Task: inverse folding
């Protein structure tokens, strides 16, 4: 029907009725009845049209609801597949009953999500669901085989992962993402169709029921309310699918979409570059362990707020998962400009987090990659991750991807597996070795102690420095068993020197998490008792920042080991966040000034002032002071003038294996005496033996 013809008919009937009434009063009731019949006819026609329109709207609504349900189901399947892959990777890193249970639970959820998709879909969507279900089965079979191989420590696990599991996962994840996106687009189209149907109904109702505007308004309000609810539901579903529920930031899916759009060569302005930053939180695990998971959530939320403040309009901040964040800089003028933003981000994260559960000190390591011709999103993220690993291991905070450096980084997963196997089996081949760097006492230019520094004689990669594997140990939860293993080696070697008549105090670096381990004090006592080493010849070095996570518990543990006679050293002083009040309460014997303040001591007056202040503060608190990183003799002489008690560094001696340490000690003493004009002693090690017990 066409509304103009209805309108003309009504007008014509009205004109005829008026003329008839004027012409013949007898016909007025009959004509009024005709007008009533005509009006009834119009209303019936309009009612039929309304019923038809309502049916169309209902069908469109049902189709839209089904599309939204499918969109949600496929989105859920995409998330479940990602979680399944994450749990499989977690089991590779830390195979345990709990990790395997989490993997099986996530795999079951992925299977259930795709099964629901098959049950709820029809037509082409049903075919897509069946295809995805088959791909999930293929991936599940390959992943289950990999889990078994990892459990059995099968060396072919890496090959299985690379050739079957990873390709199957990427195929599955790509397809489920594409299917989800297509059904999301279809749902939006149905929303638009529904809006058109409602608009036509509104127009017809207004024209046909001019005298029933009240009823029309009521119906329209109902329909508008329904439409708003549908649109709000669609918007909420879309927002939840693309944003992190805790921080409100973009999630991995949205970040990857925006990265793909930003890499489109047609959208780049001349002279602009695209950069991606990956940010990993340092010390976040300790916040969860000591202050609770709610405090960890608070840190993540506050981290999102801080990152939003340092980026520019148009930049994207995302949480990729856990304590890993990402920033997309679609337009930066230069590498320097991108690095400046990254440094602002690390500066913002270094500020203490004031939480309801207490204060938390964390920081961030930023890896950055800039796009080049032909760069894909996966390459950008992989390069940024490699740079972030280098920034974390070097301690510099920010690193820009360098293909000449980062491509040579050994596989972290392979290193983790090898290191875990060594610590589990007790290192039967002695691959983990300790080098020792002499520490020269300035009062008489003699060596009274040495610091133990770990090296890994890897059978395939050769001799690895600590930077190459300590981060793997920390992130993989191996730092505590590694500390205990190395402490046993150091105590055994110190006992051997003592038996040979060369007692030296050996300094061992202790992971901050060891202070939270109930077995720590027992491990120290057991190592000393097993090898018969006097407790005074062992010195435990704890980083300053490691004391801030749980100061009360740390102080209690340190007081207990000191009561046994073990010495305690506060390492890397000046780089952490400890307050003067905490420093006053610490149970310690030694304070070590970080090398960053010693490196430019001869040329930077500010560093000299800071070092002098640190030495005076330590002496006032009854601590003796060791400066590390002494790389030139001018700095050595200045430290002597400033009142430093002990030094170590390349200018005097390098870390060496234990069998050549005595020769390195003599070399360090000769260099110190020549520089400081100290007289030579008859027995070069007599001072060391005497000072080992009373530094």
Result:
């Amino acid at each position: 029907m066409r509304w103009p013809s209805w309108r003309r008919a009504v007008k014509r009937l009205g004109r005829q009725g008026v003329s008839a009434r004027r012409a013949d009063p007898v016909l007025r009731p009959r004509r009024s009845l005709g007008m009533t019949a005509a009006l009834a006819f119009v209303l019936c026609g309009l009612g039929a049209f309304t019923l038809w329109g309502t049916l169309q709207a209902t069908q469109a609504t049902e189709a839209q609801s089904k599309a939204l349900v499918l969109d949600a189901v496929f989105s859920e399947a995409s998330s479940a597949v990602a979680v399944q892959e994450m749990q499989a990777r977690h089991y590779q890193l830390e195979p345990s009953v709990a990790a395997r249970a989490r993997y099986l639970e996530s795999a079951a959820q992925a299977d259930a999500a795709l099964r629901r998709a098959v049950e709820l879909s029809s037509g082409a969507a049903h075919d897509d669901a069946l295809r995805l279900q088959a791909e999930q089965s293929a991936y599940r079979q390959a992943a289950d085989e990999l889990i078994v191989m990892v459990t059995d420590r099968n060396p072919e696990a890496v090959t299985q992962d690379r050739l079957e599991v990873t390709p199957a996962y990427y195929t599955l994840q790509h397809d489920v993402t594409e299917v989800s996106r297509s059904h999301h687009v279809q749902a939006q189209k149905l929303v638009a169709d529904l809006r058109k149907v409602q608009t036509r109904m509104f127009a017809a109702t207004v024209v046909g029921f001019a005298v029933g505007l009240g009823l029309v308004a009521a119906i329209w309000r109902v329909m508008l309310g329904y439409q708003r609810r549908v649109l709000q539901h669609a918007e909420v579903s879309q927002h939840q699918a693309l944003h992190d529920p805790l921080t409100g930031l973009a999630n991995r899916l949205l970040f990857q979409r925006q990265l793909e759009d930003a890499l489109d060569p047609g959208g780049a302005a001349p002279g602009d570059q695209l950069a991606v930053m990956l940010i990993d939180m340092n010390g976040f695990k300790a916040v969860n362990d000591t202050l609770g998971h709610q405090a960890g959530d608070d840190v993540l939320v506050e981290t999102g707020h801080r990152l939003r403040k340092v980026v520019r309009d148009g930049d994207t901040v995302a949480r990729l998962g856990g304590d890993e964040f990402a920033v997309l800089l679609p337009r930066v003028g230069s590498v320097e400009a991108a690095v400046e933003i990254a440094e602002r981000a690390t500066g913002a994260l270094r500020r203490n987090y004031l939480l309801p559960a207490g204060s938390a000190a964390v920081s961030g390591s930023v890896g950055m990659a800039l796009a080049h011709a032909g760069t894909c999103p996966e390459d950008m993220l992989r390069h940024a991750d490699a740079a972030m690993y280098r920034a974390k291991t070097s301690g510099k905070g920010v690193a820009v991807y360098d293909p000449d450096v980062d491509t040579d980084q050994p596989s972290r997963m392979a290193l983790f597996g090898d290191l875990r196997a060594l610590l589990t089996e007790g290192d039967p081949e002695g691959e983990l070795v300790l080098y020792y760097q002499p520490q020269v006492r300035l009062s008489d230019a003699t060596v009274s102690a040495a610091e133990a520094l770990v090296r890994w004689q890897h059978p395939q990669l050769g001799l690895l420095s600590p930077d190459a594997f300590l981060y793997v140990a920390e992130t993989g939860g191996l730092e505590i068993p590694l500390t205990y293993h190395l402490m046993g080696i150091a105590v055994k070697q110190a006992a051997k020197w003592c038996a040979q008549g060369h007692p030296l105090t050996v300094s061992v670096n202790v992971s901050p998490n060891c202070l939270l381990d109930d077995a720590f004090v027992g491990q120290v006592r057991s190592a000393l008792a097993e090898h018969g080493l006097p407790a005074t010849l062992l010195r435990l070095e704890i980083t300053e920042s490691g004391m801030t996570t749980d100061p009360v518990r740390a102080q209690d543990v340190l007081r207990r080991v000191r009561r046994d006679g073990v010495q305690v050293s506060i390492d890397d002083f000046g780089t952490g966040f400890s307050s003067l009040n905490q420093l006053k309460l610490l149970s310690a014997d030694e304070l070590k000034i970080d090398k960053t303040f010693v490196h430019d001591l001869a040329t930077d007056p500010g560093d000299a002032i800071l070092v002098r202040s640190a030495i005076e503060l330590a002496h006032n608190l009854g601590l003796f002071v060791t400066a590390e990183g002494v790389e030139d003799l001018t700095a050595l002489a200045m430290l002597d003038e400033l009142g430093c008690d002990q030094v170590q560094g390349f200018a005097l001696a390098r870390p060496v294996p234990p069998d050549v340490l005595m020769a390195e000690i003599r070399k360090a003493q000769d260099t110190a005496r020549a520089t400081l004009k100290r007289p030579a002693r008859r027995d070069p090690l007599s001072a060391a033996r005497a000072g080992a017990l009373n530094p």
Summary: The chain is about 60% helix and 15% strand. Residues 28-93 form the longest helix (66 residues). The first strand starts at residue 273 and ends at 282.
